[in-house]
Amino acid sequence: MSAAKQKRKRPEEDRVPEAEQQPRPERTEATPPLAPGIDEIPLEESQPGPAVAMESILRIIEHAAAERSVTTPEEMEKLMNELSSEEFERARDKWIASGPRARAQDLAFRAILEAGSDEEAVALARRALKADPECVDALAVLAELTSGDRVEEFLERLKEAVAVGRKALAGEPHDAGGPLWDSLEARPYMRARFRLADALRVVGRYGEAVEHLEALMDLNPDDHQRAREPLLACYLSQGRLDEARELLARFYEDESAVFRWGRLLERLLSDDAAGAAAALERARDQNPYVERFITFRRQPPDCKPETYTPGTREEAVHCLYMMGFAWAAHPEAIHWVRSR
Which of 182, 244, 268, 270 is most buried per CB count within 10 Å? Predict the structure, then answer.
């Protein structure tokens, strides 16, 4: 949650100047192939705040459009261009007043985006559930902030949120043959399910994580949530190379650090030395910082960044958060990179 994240140091603050860093000890086959601290990354929220913030705005605009009988893309664009700050606030008030579900969703958005502390976020989530006991985002907030270190409780409560979301969607006339992501009403459910999948991945329950991630990609073929990243890592960690290759081919244009370094690991596991050498150069070109982390030459921070841009250290931390366990499952691949 936003409040929880505010308490953590950002990667920029954690970084030790290179001049002060001590050389990393050489690793051997007997040494655990996982950098200290990476296996202790907390179970933190998987969906970035900006995506939720945009969704909150879209819900208000969607309600205003329905009130004005806006039907065409051209009319929608005109509405968005003409909506002043004052008119937007009035539209927000009308949306909140439209019913308990909207009121609950607004409170849940405030818990995620605006709460200044965990206590405030919990209070907002509980108010949301009083208005609508099936508010999935509020259920996820409470799972996140009141389960403490009780991992099984956290997972079970997320599963309950997912089940509630699935049941609520069953009666909605949203399925017109398009991706489920197109329905704003469906996004809290998909967000909770992604959160559950990522938490299962973090605690090493890869098979269960894969089931949820594959389902999310079936529901959202364009993969706005980037479920493909943890899914690729799960495939590679388990040596499911055929499925990894199919996913890499499906998103062949994805040049993110996760996919470039994932392609390298796939080539290594396929015993393709020439292909691996070429993939290593492409991965280095895209983000050289990843190599320092997976070869233990740099100590990564203990939490992932909220945002990042391609080619940066922050993206490398995100890549390690997603792919580190897959590399750790194959120490021979790490040693191959070190030898280069």
Answer: 244
User: How far apart are alpha carbons 227 and 263 in whole angstroms?
Assistant: 16
Q: What is the pLDDT of residue 257?
A: 96
Q: Across 78-224, where does the E strand assignment appear?
A: none
N- to C-terminal Cα separation, the chain: 40
- Helices 241-250 and 257-269 pack at an angle, to 10 degrees, of 140
Cα angle value 11/256/54 (rounded, 5°): 70
C-alpha gyration radius of the chain: 22
Residue-level pLDDT at 49: 67
**Residue 109 CB partners (closer than 8 Å, separation 6+):** 52, 55, 56, 137
Residue 289 identity (one-letter amino acid): Y
Contacting residues for 301 by C-beta, under 8 A, at least 6 apart: 9, 11, 14, 15, 317
8 A C-beta contact, residue 271 and residue 336: no
What kind and span of H or E run contains 252? none
Instruction: Determine the Cα–Cα distance for residues 65 and 5; give it in Å rounded to an integer.
Output: 34
Provide the b/e sequence for 204-223 (b: ≥16 CB within 10 Å): eebebbbebbbebbebbeeb
Quote the CA–CA distance of 89 and 200 in Å, as a whole number: 39
pLDDT score recorded for residue 27 = 38
Residues of the chain with pLDDT under 70: 1-49, 171-178
